[in-house]
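User: I'm writing a short report section on ligand binding and want a predicted complex to refer to. Could you take this sequence and S-adenosylmethionine and write out the structure as tokens? A short remark afterwards would be nice.
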Amino acid sequence: MISIQEDVIAGLLENPKRISSRWFYDEKGDKLFQDIMELPEYYLTRAEFSVLKMYAKDIFSYFTFDKPIQIVELGAGDGKKTRVLFNYLNAENKSFEYIPIDISLNALNRLENALKKEYPGMAIKSIQTDYFSALKKDELQSSKHKLVLFLGSNVGNLNEKDAIEFFKQLHQALKPGDGVLIGFDRTKNPETILAAYNDAAGVTRNFNLNLLTRLNRELGANFELKNWEHQPKYDIERKSALSFIRSTKEQSVTFEKASKTIHFNEGELIHTEISRKFDLEDIQNLASKTGFKLASNFDHSMPLYTDSLWLA
Ligand SMILES: C[S@@+](CC[C@H](N)C(=O)[O-])C[C@H]1O[C@@H](n2cnc3c(N)ncnc32)[C@H](O)[C@@H]1O
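Assistant: Sure. The structure tokens for the complex follow:
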């Protein structure tokens, strides 16, 4: 797994500059993301929660439970929505083991502690790593029957090339009959989408700028927060919400631990997140290109969100 220092410095030496969204999630970032999920503008979480609640039975009808099924969750976060699936399986007396994977150790520790209290006896093994490295872990390579969860529109944070490569590799790691449930945020009115990344209370702003505070702490950088601002936009052609951090003046930032100084022009942008949106055709194409069979789309129509179940 690449280190934060190596990845951030490499991204800031590119033109245009970028920092991967994976570094949003330190302890403060995890908490801010939980706050984002509660915002009135952030429809995604509520839509997916309803989909899982409404369709848990249909989703699991594609799986046999003669042996405990392995539920592997990529980018699990606080697992709030995943509990809907656990509750269904417990009510049906279907046994499973849960493997949450996340780059944030803080998120994993909190999740594991909470689940152990809420579901005593639940078989759980968390793994801290990134999506691509996760595919090489023994748990992903095992012959156990699996459902891989990739919820919360995490798929939208991968650009098209990375998404294709990721799902091809995931397909190779799975056995026939294993499944992947992926949360896709659908294309819709651009204002509705943009508002979800530019809320009135400024929580998404704080989430984006918290990256700089993290770099100050972990890489010994000297970003002055007052010289930076949150800049979101919706790119209709790319069907993507894009988040940037904008330099409000010409300035240099030194990263003491990396012995590196980076120059920024006034108005220069650091690209920090892509959140791609999908049509049904895009979902079908991604499945077909990467070797999966699309088994079923579970939709929430107001506003549009789809959890798509693919089989290996
Ligand atoms: C947008 S949140 C969604 C959380 C959860 N899936 C949900 O639906 O509520 C993304 C989560 O994925 C994790 N994450 C982001 N990039 C990652 C990466 N490249 N590899 C592993 N985890 C990642 C973050 O730490 C965070 O917990």
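A remark for your report: Residues 4-38+198-276 form one domain. The chain has eleven helices and 14 strands.
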